[in-house]
Structures are given as C-alpha cells and as structure tokens.
Amino acid sequence: MAKQPMLKFVTIDRDMPEKRDATIRNKDFNEIYAEYADAKAKEQASRCSQCGVPYCQNHCPLHNNIPDWLRMTATGRLEEAYAISQATNTFPEICGRICPQDRLCEGNCVIEQSGHGTVTIGSVEKYITDTAWEKGWVKPITPIKERAQSVGIIGAGPGGLAAADRLRRAGIQVTVYDRYDRAGGLLTYGIPGFKLEKDVVMRRIEQLEKSGVTFRMNVNVGEDISFDDIRAAHDAVVIATGVYKTRDLQGPGSGAQGIVCAIDYLTASNKQDFGDTVPEIEDGTLNASGKKVVVIGGGDTAMDCVRTAIRQGASSVKCLYRRDRANMPGSQREVQNAEEEGVVFEWLAAPKGFTGDPVNGVMVQKMRLGQPDTSGRQSPEVIEGADYIEGADLVVKALGFEPEDLPTLWDQPELPVTRWGTVKATFTTGETEMDGVYAVGDIVRGASLVVWAIKDGRDCADAIIERLTAINEIAAE
Ligand SMILES: Cc1cc2nc3c(=O)[nH]c(=O)nc-3n(C[C@H](O)[C@H](O)[C@H](O)COP(=O)(O)OP(=O)(O)OC[C@H]3O[C@@H](n4cnc5c(N)ncnc54)[C@H](O)[C@@H]3O)c2cc1C
Ligand code: SF4
After folding, report:
1. What pLDDT, in 10s, does the model give residues 92-134?
2. Spatial distance between the Cα atoms of 238 and 176, rounded to a whole number of angstroms
3. Secondary structure (3-state) at 475
4. Beta strands 349-355 and 361-372: pairing type?
5. Mapping DSSP to helix (H, G, I), strand (E, B) and coil, where does residue 328 land?
6. How many A from CA of 68 to the centre of ligand 1?
7. 89 C-alpha vs ligand 2 centroid, how far in Å?
8. What are the angstrom distances between the C-alpha of 352 and each of 282, 362, 463?
9. Are residues 141 and 212 in contact, defined by beta-carbon separation less than 8 angstroms?
C-alpha cells in the first residue's frame, strides 16, 4: 500500500527509538516525533485480536472502546474510528501522547500478556485524532438548544476543560476562571513540549472558545475574585485547581541560591517554548545551560526535569532517587528515554544537605531498602559512613505536589477536605457536601494523571447536567 502523507505531530517513542538521539539537543523537538503514517496505524490496529475480553478497555480509566476503534482503523474507516474514540475521551490525541499506557491500556493488552508485544494503542489513538484535526472532522460544539443556566469552573486544566466541553454539549453556559495567562493547566505549563506539543493543547482551547466557553484568565480565585462571588454568579461551581504546593527539602543549605522547584523550572521552560520573554531563563536562575544539574525525585515530574535540562544544554544531568529503579513511581519508559538521552541515575541516594551559596554540591546519603512500611513498599534506610558530595550548580526539587489550603485561601471553612488537604468529593460525580459545588482532578485525587482528570470532568459534568435538568423541570411544573 502507498504511504500516506506524514502527520506533523505524532509521538511514538517505542516504534522509532532510532529517531531520538541525533535531534535531541535541537530546539525543534517535533522532528523526533515525525513519520507515523497510515500504514503503520493500520498495521498496529490490525494486530488487535479482538479477543472479546477487552482488558485494555477495562484498564483505560475512560473505558474507551479500544477494540472498536482499532477495528475501524484497520479497515481504513478513520472517521468512524474518530467518532467512537471522541465519544468517551474529550482529548484523545492528548491521552494518546502522554498516558502511561504501559500501566494502563497497553500493559493489559492480551497480545502483550502473551509475550508478543502490545498493540501500540496510544499511538493509534493519537493518530486517529490528529487525522481528524487535519481533515476538519473536529468541529466546535454547537448545542442543539442553549440553556440559561451557567456553571463556573475554577481551573483550566484537563479536568476543568473536560467538564467545560461536556457542559457546552448540553447547552449550558460555561465560564472558566484560571490564574495563569494561558489555559491548559499542567498540559500547558507542566508537561514539556517534547512530550506534548503546545499547539496540540492550544487548538483544543480555541475549539472550546469557538464553542462558546468563556475563559477568564489571570484571575486568581481567592485574590482577584472571591469564591463566594463565583458561587453567586453560577448555578453550579466546579473546583478543578490541581495541586501546586511543592514538597520541600530540609537540611543544611536547603535555602541556597540555585535550588529551585520543579514546577517553576518547567513553567519557565514552557513559557520560553511559547516565545515568551522569561527573565529567569535569561538571568540563568531557571536555565540549565552549561550547568551540572541534579534533579531530586523519582516520579514523572523528575523525568521531565532531567529531560528538559538535557535539552537546555546542561553539561551533566543526574537524578537522585532514594529507592531503587524497580521501586520508583515514574514510568520505566520515561527512565529509559532519559537514560538514552544521557541522564545518569543515582539510585538509593538521598539528599542530606547542600554545600555553597549559590549551591555547588549536594550532600548525598547512600540508602538501602529495609522492611516494608504500611503501604507494603520497602522503606529506604541510611547506610552509615557512605555519604558523598555530588557537584551541582543547579538543583531541581521534584518531590511531588500537595494541595494548597483552599478552605483558608478562599475563606471557606465549610469546604470539606481530607487530612491530606484534597477536596472531599464523590469520585463518580464530583459532588462535595457544599450545595452545587463539585470538585474534579488532582485537587480530589492528589497528584494523578491527565486521563483521570478527564474522566472526573466528564462524569462531574454529567452529574451537573442531571441536576440542572431536574431544577429546570421543577421550575417548569
Ligand atoms: C511535570 C508534570 C508532568 C506530568 N506528566 C504527565 C504525563 O505525562 N501524563 C499524565 O497523564 N499526567 C502527567 N502529569 C499529571 C497531570 O498533569 C495532572 O494529573 C493533570 O494535569 C491534573 O489535571 P487538573 O485539571 O486536575 O489540574 P491542573 O492541570 O493542575 O490544572 C489546574 C488549573 O487550576 C488553576 N488554578 C489553581 N488554583 C487556582 C486559583 N486559585 N484560581 C484560579 N485558577 C487556579 C491552575 O492555574 C491550573 O491551570 C504531570 C504532572 C506534572 C506536574
Ligand atoms: S486514554 Fe490513555 S489509557 Fe485510555 S486508551 Fe487512550 S492511551 Fe490508553
């Protein structure tokens, strides 16, 4: 079969590892991800055995109808494949790029389980929707009937945007408030462009704007507008604010210049990719160029930081993690990508303090894994007398995120929160104990995944639609 024209934006690390190395230091990251053609998508889709026990579907948080859209792709019926895929997923091309498929759909593919290598479900999902964009099948939402009722959504990340999309489809008026200048939440300012190209996110924002969603950017709820005012202005409110409080490091020297937070570091790099002038990049504060960089942490945020540092031209990049490779929270695929790009991992290594101000080294304690803790994970223990100093001009703290104290910041003592500070809400509907107030995404689950935020936003919107419809019906009686 003749090869189809290439798509511009497709990420398929596993299909094309040989493409990654040469261009890695270039700014044009998208080059790495070219060349996923129709033939490849069909070939992969036709590998699906249509096994009838769709573990892939069951392990996708959205329960995407994967076997059906694979079948449509295999037989060249891409528009139908897109319709099926879009029915359950607000942003299939985004999930296709950044879901940890090895832990979700692909990890549970029966072909993978039988040792023959998974169908690359994520890549096909992305291909289908990228094609849909290219062909003009993705259209702004035009509700059959407009309703006067409105919903205020605080937070323009994937959770808030998925809710906005679904609510607009039902004709409900939607205003999204966000403290950033651009919508997208961590899709825009957290996840780096080499994993998720920014124009892929921005075209979705434009689609929502054209669909009638009002975005009020640079509005920090709690400072620029009160939560009470938002509640008073709408029939329902969705809290989708994510988690942004960085877990900190203690120890001597931890306040030294040159020790920075992952979210600040990644946001600056993403802003630069948008073409913004970023003073902290220009003055070197958040720029790894020519520096010995040490990133502390073992999650996906740490992987994004090390890979960003490589792209900024760091002279060396090391990642310290206090457990071993098998016990790290981040995706193994991401570790492999980072290693291929030149990142050195120091497993079983924890920071004890820092030397110099500006920082010039990390005092590292060597660890071993001891007895399992209450969660069943082995606890790291210090090996006495094995400390050493790791040279560093830039240290990035990537130890995870916690929720901000919303009841205090928003003067809402009644907003129910858990002992971890996340908002207490029913997982299936997002309902909180405050009347008409819902919550979705990371602010409910703690730091999680884009696909879970989308699921929450979708399900919460359905619950709101049901509630507002019932109110309408009562009013009409
Ligand atoms: C560096 C990094 C990399 C990641 N990589 C992946 C990945 O590869 N795959 C994956 O599935 N997940 C990844 N995640 C996790 C994923 O990004 C989150 O789970 C997801 O974005 C959560 O969505 P959300 O809508 O709940 O919150 P967010 O995306 O955090 O959006 C919240 C929004 O609320 C706004 N906001 C907060 N407080 C206020 C306020 N007071 N007033 C107004 N606006 C406010 C914020 O500005 C933000 O725009 C990553 C996370 C990080 C930090
Ligand atoms: S949304 Fe994520 S888990 Fe679900 S099919 Fe797509 S890539 Fe797999």
Report:
1. 999 999 998 988 999 999 888 888 888 999 999 999 999 999 9
2. 9
3. helix
4. antiparallel
5. coil
6. 30
7. 9
8. 30, 8, 48
9. yes
Residue 30 CA from chain centroid, whole number:
18
Residues in the chain: 477
Report helix, strand or coil for 431.
Answer: strand
State yes or no: pLDDT of 9 exceeds 60.
Answer: no
Burial of 451 (0-12, 13-18, 19+ CB in 10 A): buried
Joined together, the tokens standing for residue 228 give 């009470």
Contact 135, 119 (CB under 8 A): no
Q: Which two tokens stand for residue 359?
A: 């920082």
Q: Residue 229 contacts by C-beta under 8 Å, 6 or more apart in sequence?
A: none
Say if residues 174 and 212 touch (Cβ distance below 8 Å). yes
Write the CB contacts of 8 (distance below 8 Å, at least 6 apart in sequence): 30, 34, 130
| Ligand 1, atom 38: closest residue by C-alpha | 241
What is the pTM (predicted TM-score) of this model?
A: 0.91
pLDDT (0 to 100) of residue 19: 37
Q: Which strand (E) or helix (H) includes residue 454?
A: helix 450-476
- The reply to whether omega before 140 is within 30° of 0 (cis) is no
The single-letter code of the amino acid at 32 is: I
**Ligand at shortest distance from the CA of 128:** 2
* Atom from ligand 1 closest to the CA of residue 406: 41
Give the binding-site residues of ligand 1, using a 6 Å CB cut-off: 98-99, 154-160, 177-180, 185-186, 190-191, 195, 220-222, 240-242, 266, 300-301, 304, 441-443, 448-451, 453
Counting ligands in written order, the one closest to the CA of 157 is 1
Q: Is 184 left (phi over 0), alpha (psi -120 to 50) or beta?
A: left
Q: Could you read off the pLDDT of 135-151 as tens digits, one per residue? A: 999 999 999 999 999 99
CA–CA gap between residue 331 and residue 268 (Å, rounded): 24
451 lines ligand 2 (CB under 6 A): yes
